[in-house]
Amino acid sequence: MDIQQLASELKTQNDSKIVMLVADGLGGLPREPGGPTELEAANTPNLDALARRGVSGSMYPIARGITPGSGPGHLGLFGYDPVKYLIGRGALEATGIGFALGPNDVAIRCNFCTLDAEGNITDRRAGRIPTEESAPLAIKLREVKIPGVEVFVEPVKEHRFVVVFRGEGLGDDVGDTDPQRTGVPPLDPEPGDRPSEKTVEVARQFIEQARRLLADQPKANGLTMRGFSAKPDIATYKEVYGVRAAAIAVYPMYRGLAQLVGMEIVGEPSTLEEEIDVLEKAWADYDFFFVHFKYTDSRGEDGDFDAKVKMIEQFDTIIPRVDALKPTVLLVTGDHSTPAKLASHSWHSVPTLLLADDSRGDTCEVFGETEALKGALGHFPAVELMPLALAHAGRLGKFGA
Amino acid sequence: MDIQQLASELKTQNDSKIVMLVADGLGGLPREPGGPTELEAANTPNLDALARRGVSGSMYPIARGITPGSGPGHLGLFGYDPVKYLIGRGALEATGIGFALGPNDVAIRCNFCTLDAEGNITDRRAGRIPTEESAPLAIKLREVKIPGVEVFVEPVKEHRFVVVFRGEGLGDDVGDTDPQRTGVPPLDPEPGDRPSEKTVEVARQFIEQARRLLADQPKANGLTMRGFSAKPDIATYKEVYGVRAAAIAVYPMYRGLAQLVGMEIVGEPSTLEEEIDVLEKAWADYDFFFVHFKYTDSRGEDGDFDAKVKMIEQFDTIIPRVDALKPTVLLVTGDHSTPAKLASHSWHSVPTLLLADDSRGDTCEVFGETEALKGALGHFPAVELMPLALAHAGRLGKFGA
Fold first, then answer.
1. Contact between A78 and A243 (Cβ < 8 Å)
2. Sign of the dihedral through C-alpha B122, B124, B130, B133
3. What are phi and psi of A191, to 5 degrees?
4. Going by C-beta distance under 8 Å and a sequence separation of 6 or more, which residues neighbour residue B122?
5. Distance CA B203, CA B52 (A)
């Protein structure tokens, strides 16, 4: 029994409200040794005030040294062991473009490629065909019809698109058809188990019809398929924690990840201010609110320290509006670190803050990586954040008598 | 292999002495934000001196956010994973009144109830019959005789009593007979597996004979049975750690919990001073001493901050007597927090102290929740306390070559 199962068994109901504010890629690194991180360099009077009122901690997303992608990073925050609940590549790609996967779906990441007259691959990415050219081709592939199976085709970007097969009994243990080199034809899809034989049959039909539809294309006259995967079998927030959960996010990827755990997607915000508008309007209707802010991660990925500082300062400005709602528990955290110095996700811990009437208090005076090291929450894995939040919200009963 | 199994494999013998002082429900919360907890408010010169000489840490009983009952709280302190070793409700009730469960026992929590002429329950608690009336009735039920099985009946309080069946091959997977409502008869006990069919047969005979013995009672003319459970299958302190362990406690519940892990119950103390008398007298005869102080928890449960402070100050006064015995390792901790603010057990960490010649030292100046956050022991789960104690006592060998 893991901590999530234990928390689930102990769940109780009340009228508390929990808000989880996620600044994507929040954690950072000093530009130079001894200097401040992005968060420490930023002027964040509101977050610092929360740090004095609440408790801080240093949260590692998966385990020390492990750098998470967005999927595992968020699953951990949501309290699902990211090593146990794996999201297949195809499912993540579909989720990332906002496609709501159902229980009978198998999602596949596809690439357009260029084939020569013998059917051998000459370019695995169809000359990195621009999206303006590839998107109409993906949409054209919606003409594919396969008896007994619904077929969805969604453009992604450049040579990439997503295919979803929907039907009873489709397995997802199917080998990739990308041979990872040129001069050879795409591989035949191979089933790894019995239910996947049906999926392979469907995939072969798809490939055959697609080849006909693409036959006259100069660049994108073929395709490869990778990462066949079903929707992961994950219990919902309602089932696990007994809360009505709302997700407020601008980007499809994070709306999709929240949807995978059964959160309801609320509103169509396009800025952080609009996200808080949505939060205020939905306040009465949910028990738990996941609010996602993307740009701390984006500017970290750009390697732009100063721009990430500015995004953190923007994030800080909305804190009073959230605080004014008087959530029973307010969490401020990130799904991982994205130090501008590395211009990528990293394994470093994420400064995390919990504000609740029944927290014990610590000596942290500001919200930052170094200060969080001495916080009352200690150094802890992301999967323990939800149990902590539920406990402080009075939503967990006693274990044993 | 969990940490306890690892410690067990590495155990060695020497003539060290370990004392574990447990102030039940020790951890607390500030009355007002920013204020001191009960322990921080208390005048504890002796504990503070220990904190300066030893090392501190912030211990969570089970996992972050999880509030333990007394059973799991103590199992954790004793080094047994409380999520793995579950104590059934009947077994805990029997343990709580000091009944020493054996390996062939099944313990059951019973309620007297009131039945009407049709055998339907009119009051599930027999009008909350006072103990003076119910205890003689429980004792009267000792007249029940069932071939091949020993039957024990023990009064508890008001409508509650405990029944223990002792016999070969009795399963404990039996459904409750309390229908949880009135106007219907008690349920028939139902077996969940094969060995429990025998237990059900015994339970039916018990119910039938008991009904006859209680037939002329105005209130308590029936009974219900809940929480059928065997003694949990737990290796003893001697087996696991190789120590002769003594338990010194005033309350039956804690004597019982210690007995579940094979500690010997020493003395019949009724005050903390008397507990230390017992400790001094038994000093030569054991390697490990569990000393339990109840009233820190009781006053926390009462919601009485000042009274809990006083109990902590009383606890502090006995420290010099324990210190004078020069234990190789002295532990001071609690089984969980019981903040007066919440008037109940809570999930908050427990300040914990270890004093030993071979501890490394830290910067803690007083014994308290906030100070312990920066201690050398870090933030750690209760199950790691025993390995730490054994190591500092020189009782754990090297792992691997």
1. no
2. positive
3. -80, 145
4. B114, B115, B116, B182, B183
5. 57
A390: closest chain B residue by CA? B65
Closest-CA distance of chain A to residue B344, Å:
10
Contact B148, B89 (CB under 8 A): no
Residue A192 in tokens: 């790894």
What SS3 state is found at B68?
strand
Mutate to test the interface with A, among B2, B38, B66, B377 (most CBs of A within 10 A): B66
Between strands A55-60 and A150-157, the pairing is unpaired
Measured CB to CB, residues of chain B less than 8 Å from chain A are: 29-30, 33-34, 37, 58, 62-73, 82-83, 86-87, 89, 92, 339, 341-342, 344-349, 369-370, 373-374, 378-379
Q: Give this prediction's pTM.
A: 0.91
Question: pLDDT per position in chain B (401 positions), as tens?
Answer: 899 999 999 999 999 999 999 999 999 999 998 899 999 999 999 999 999 999 999 999 999 999 999 999 999 999 999 999 999 889 988 988 889 899 999 999 999 999 999 999 999 999 999 999 999 999 999 999 999 999 999 999 899 999 999 999 999 999 999 999 999 999 999 999 999 999 999 999 999 999 999 999 999 999 999 999 999 989 999 999 999 999 999 998 899 999 999 999 999 999 999 999 999 999 999 999 999 999 999 999 999 999 999 999 999 999 999 999 999 999 999 999 999 999 999 999 999 999 999 999 999 999 999 999 999 999 999 999 999 999 999 999 999 98
Closest A-chain CA to B67: A398
Q: With beta carbons under 8 A apart, name residues in chain B contacting A384.
A: 63-65
Chain A nearest CA to B118, separation (Å): 35
* CB environment A178-189: b (16+ within 10 A), e (fewer): bbeeeeeebeeb
Cβ-contact A360, B29 below 8 angstroms: yes
The whole-angstrom distance between B147's CA and the closest CA on chain A is 33
Take residue A7 and report the two structure tokens written for it.
Answer: 């928390």
- Could you tell me the end-to-end alpha-carbon distance of chain B, in angstroms, rounded to an integer? 18
- H/E run at residue A209: helix A195-214
